[in-house]
Amino acid sequence: MVSVPSAGPLVYAGSKYQSWYWSTVAVGLVGAVTAMAFSSIQADNEAAMPLEFKVEPISKLNVPTRITVCHDDQSKDFQLLGLGVRQVTLLYLAVYTAAIYVDDSLTQRISRSTRWTQEFAQDKLVQNTSDSKWFVSDLVNGHPGEISLRIDPVRNTNGPHLRNGFVRFLTERQRQETLKGTLDEKESAAFTKSLDDLRALFPSGAIMKGQVLVFTKLSDGRLHVSFNGREMGSVNSPLLSKWVMEGYLRSDPVISPSLIASVAAGVNHVVQSQ
C-alpha cells in the first residue's frame, strides 16, 4: 500500500509551499510504484526459474538442465549436455552463455555406439584432429535425434549484433568449404539463400539480459529458432543446421573453449555410465 503524507499546515492554495509539497508527493509515489513493480518482476522471475540448473562459472548465470522446445504444434524435452560462455576482446568480456542440449535418442545413440564407447576420450573433442571432426560430425548428424543450442546474453544487447556474429562464422565456413572444393557453386548459392532466411528470424530490436535464443536442429534437417519462448520460424537447410551446431563444437575456429570442454565432459559421462 502506498501512503500519502498529510498536507499539514504549510500547504495553502497559491502559496510557494504548495508546489514543493505536491512535487515531493509525486516523487514519493513514483518511487514507491517503481519499487513495487520491480519486486513483482523479481518475484515472477524467481518463480519461473527452473528447479534444476547449473551455474556458468564465468558469467554466474543460471543454465537450466532441461529445456522444452516447441515447434509444429508439438513439444520435446532436451537434456543439458554442456555449457560455456562466449568471450571477446583481449579483456575476455563475457557476451553470452552457450549451452548444448540433446534429446534422449542422441544419448542412446552414443551409449550404444562401439566407437563412442571404446574410442572416445574428452581430449578427442577438444583437439583439432580428424578424430575430433568425426566425433563432432557424428554428434550433430549421425543420429535421427535432435540437438539444441541455447544462447543467453550476459548483458543487454540487440538482435543485429548477435545475428552478425552467427553470419560471420557461417560465411567463413562457407568460404573454407568452397576453397576445399567440398561446396560447389550451386550449393554455395543455396547456402547464401538460407543465410538470408536465418537473418530474418533474428529479433530486429533489443535483446535484454535473460531473453533467450534457442536454435534446434530438427530431425528433418530444418533449423528452428525461438526467442524468449516465442517461435520465430525455421530454415529448411540441413547444411545450415549442421554448420550452426558444429560451429559451437569445432575447435578451429573456436567460439567457446569452455563449451567444448563441458560438452566433452558431458559426453564422457554418458559413455562412462554405460
Automatic annotation (TrEMBL):
Keywords: Membrane, Transmembrane, Transmembrane helix. Gene3D superfamilies: 3.50.70.10. SUPFAM superfamilies: Chalcone isomerase. InterPro entries: Chalcone_isomerase, Chalcone_isomerase_3-sand, Chalcone_isomerase_sf. This is Chalcone isomerase domain-containing protein. GO terms for molecular function: intramolecular lyase activity. Residues 77-263 form the Chalcone isomerase domain. It comes from Batrachochytrium dendrobatidis (strain JAM81 / FGSC 10211) (Frog chytrid fungus). Pfam families: Chalcone_2. The keyword Plastid does not apply. The chain crosses the membrane at residues 20-41.
